[in-house]
Amino acid sequence: xxxxxxxxxxxxxxxxxxxxxxxxxxxxxxxxxxxxxxxxxxxxxxxxxxxxxxxxxxxxxxxxxxxxxxxxxxxxxxxxxxxxxxxxxxxxxxxxxxxxxxxxxxxxxxxxxxxxxxxxxxxxxxxxxxxxxxxxxxxxxxxxxxxxxxxxxxxxxxxxxxxxxxxxxxxxxxxxxxxxxxxxxxxxxxxxxxxxxxxxxxxxxxxxxxxxxxxxxxxxxxxxxxxxxxxxxxxxxxxxxxxxxxxxxxxxxxxxxxxxxxxxxxxxxxxxxxxxxxxxxxxxxxxxxxxxxxxxxxxxxxxxxxxxxxxxxxxxxxxxxxxxxxxxxxxxxxxxxxxxxxxxxxxxxxxxxxxxx
Length: 357
Prior knowledge:
With 357 residues, this protein is α/β, with parallel strands linked by helices. The chain is built from 15 helices and twelve strands. It has a six-stranded parallel sheet, with helices on both faces. A six-stranded mixed sheet has the order 7-6-8-9-10-12, sandwiched between helices. Helix 13 links the parallel strand 9 and strand 10. It is elongated. It starts with 9 loop residues before the first helix and ends in a 5-residue tail after the last strand. Residues 160-177 and 333-341 have low confidence and may be disordered.
């Protein structure tokens, strides 16, 4: 049996670079006070020797783990079936990778999983958390607050008093501010969708809402009502952001209001389910019923029959921006951490016209 190859040490890097061990330690751990020529010598020696810092030892020096938890408040069956989550995770992963941070994915199936996530975050395994797909009665925010980790939310938090949110802004320097979140203009995008349908001459516009314990669904319903203030309440049905939920809601709407001539679905997956039911019922799209979705997830919107007119939100960019804001909060320099004064970042949406409306 051959002997294991020994790993290069700090001492070996110091000898190769012609500097002290302490200087090498400061450079590889991101410390200050080392002149640039020495930094370059150390980096060159690290590359030549293939030195890999010991993460445990590095954490003792930096008090950082270079790891971020991504907490999705949904069961794995939903996460892995919905391309929305894949797009958001891709954006997060790209940003974390660019800054040499690891992504730790935590999913929640129920209340027991909430407690497990809270214990993991409190255990000091990660530097911060990115949390999305929260529901209004979710216990996760309180558990995350108790864990004391800097947090950025995906989607506008749904708590009105702001008291619980106050803790989420505390960063490594101990500063405190209200919660930071990244969202899309859900209400404005919904208004654009419904105005488009009205502009086509449609008068009996129905809405398939998302689960109303999530702020994105509430905001899109509010946007629908902004335009259709006098809409028949029977023209609104609640779905669950899944194709099956869209099918159920579409059947309910057609049974109640067979004369409807347009549908705005709160996401593309529900719109795809609605299109299937309309086809089953012999309704032509868009001649009889025009359909607009929300998301513009290309694997869905371009593959429906007919291709889906929808509201585009940049899901991948939302993920990147969430990670970017969290990493900014984790900077050790208090002056840099204080740069992030914004509590919420809302990205614009755009109408993408295809054949369904």
